[in-house]
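Chain X:
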Amino acid sequence: MVYIPLFLFTPTATIALLLLLKEKSDIRLAESEAKYRTLVESASEGISIIQDSRFVFVNSSLAKLLGISAYALLGLNFSDFVYEEDRKFLLDRLENATSSQDTAHFFDLRLIDSSGQAHWMSVHFTLVDWEGSPASLGLFTDINDRKKNEAVVNSLLAEKEALLREVNHRVKNNLSIIMNLLSLEAMSASDKKPEMVINDAKNRLQSMMQLYALLNEGKEYIDVSAKNFFIRLVTEILAVYPESKEVKMVFDIEDFNLDGDRLARLGLIINEFISNSMKHAFANTARPEIVLKADCNNKTLNLSLKDNGQGFESGMVSDGLGQRLVIMLAKQLNAKISVDGTNGASYVLKMPINK
């Protein structure tokens, strides 16, 4: 390479050479700026430069997200586009950023577009120099889908925790019912054969088994369809008695939901009523029939069982254990029971169903 001293050039030639070099430098700078602008404008992430809390640069992705043109955003206050509940959080983070030695800061917040809709964004702020003054380069990534998925997961976890608490509560209550049942069976066992005591206890626990079967099949674990439960329970109870094939069972049940605890107790009461009818009602009845009705009116559950059997003079037709059991369960349910032995046996239960 041959070096030519500048003093050999005339002043005019020297100026021309300097202008040529500057022009080439400007062209390279313009080309470089064009490349970077293309990259910034084509980025899927929102990009902005914020100085003195105001936008001094916004790329098209962020402008599209906010629903305002990039030019119109220039000079507007960035915090005006931050979800109101997140503004204090943002100010605290920015205050920490200015006092911290770190130049990069990451956090999530919600931005509000021109229509008022909130968008969850993952934000990366970096301290930069912009035209001789400090500024923040912000990168915004839309994480709405991730937040929605997190909300679904959190909801499922909360539901699982509630379900576990409900299962533990229900198991505890049902074990208490079983203990009471066995205690009552033991008190009345002196005049019964052991197999009769065991069979009676088994029949009384059938309602709780049916309830759990229905819970496992359904999608709801807290409240259960009373109609499905009552129909299936009565079907299971009648299957214990071979003579039930001759009995016509009529259902008139409104479909409503009730929690498992109260359904379990109602199931035991229904078991006693059905068993009473099967044991005592139809000795001389040509066409035996049992009608089960249930509905909810004015926050009260009305349940009735009626058979067309021989009826009884007074009181509740049952062994002493069954009667004590029904009275105990009715008290737990805050329910009132009336019994009528005229023209067959009739049992009516009224129970408040406020949660």
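Chain Y:
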Amino acid sequence: KEYGELINLKEKDFNQKLLDDIKSCGFGGNLAPVLAAILSINSKKLDKPFHLQLLAESGSGKSFTIDTAIKFFPEEQVHIMEASTPATFIYDETDISKKALYVKEIDSVPQGDSSIASALRNAMSEGILKYQTTVEDDNKGRRIVDNFREVKSVLTTGTRTPEIQTSTRLLLMDVDYSTDQIKINMQLQALRFAGYNQNKNPDVWKLFFEALDLKNPDDIEVEIPFAHKLYAAITNDKSYMDVRWNRDFPSLMAAIQSSAILHHRYREKVSDFPNLKLVATLDDYQFVRDSLWRSFQVSQKQGVNESQMRILEKIKELNDQKVDVTQSSLAEKMSVTQAYISKEVKKLKRFIEITNKPDDRRTKYLSVDLLPDSIMLPTRKEVEKAKLHSESEII
């Protein structure tokens, strides 16, 4: 009965039920990381899924976040690797060719040229977990054997950003461990200990994803007709593009495709014989933006206190008003000493650009383009209104 009600909901109510059921699992506060993990797991239906790492210090709730997302899928759709040691990769013979792979704590994966790090990188880029083992041969003694295992989407957690070869294949997302989130986590724990909170098992979603697998067991094609406009909205008026976009743009596309699959009952289907394609909409982009915005931040707010945020906000405000900002004028505007501003500007140098004018080489001018926690993803309206840089960009 509940499944019948689920598949007959309007899209807005469908999304709300998903949020409500995440809360019913005992997860509170910012639900975006759980949605992100659900999208990553669901992207296993794609030929090119996206891989996600939740990044935060120990005890911040990374594992609980992914554990909550996993509850929404049938057990046979997600394989959990409890430890990321070489022995685990070698001796775990589970068929993961159509499953999402959850590797706990990527920090323990040997880095550099290690065979396991190479195997995991290859799994994320080529869909093949490739590694070598040594076996005993009666005739030839010991010999090295190449092992190949197909793998779909990969999820993991860690306390630090992995090395560059690995991080270029992952969409990194920090887990919110602000004071407000910590209070919410403590409140939920207190309710559980007091016996007031009964965690729900979202069985109806297991049915939903099981039915999706039965209906579409193989790779699903999804067309994103607005992809070129999204590209234009991201790159318009930007003289500098961070290299991270080489990694993150394909992941963004895969996340949008995953959302279209999640919302397949509301999406147009076009026949491209013998295949059937889903057509993603801007609703999918909005869903992804709401879910993955922390993966597309200019910088994280951790380490920036409220008084420092006020300084950055004041500089940004004055810049937007086309007012020249110096340390002395900023101190005057904020009614603080110039020495205090000078000290804080040094601490905030990763956010503040300091320049000189050609005719005034001695005076230092301050500017802030984007505040901490600014989202690099354009809004839905910006995508709708985006114009291509030139006609040659339309193929």
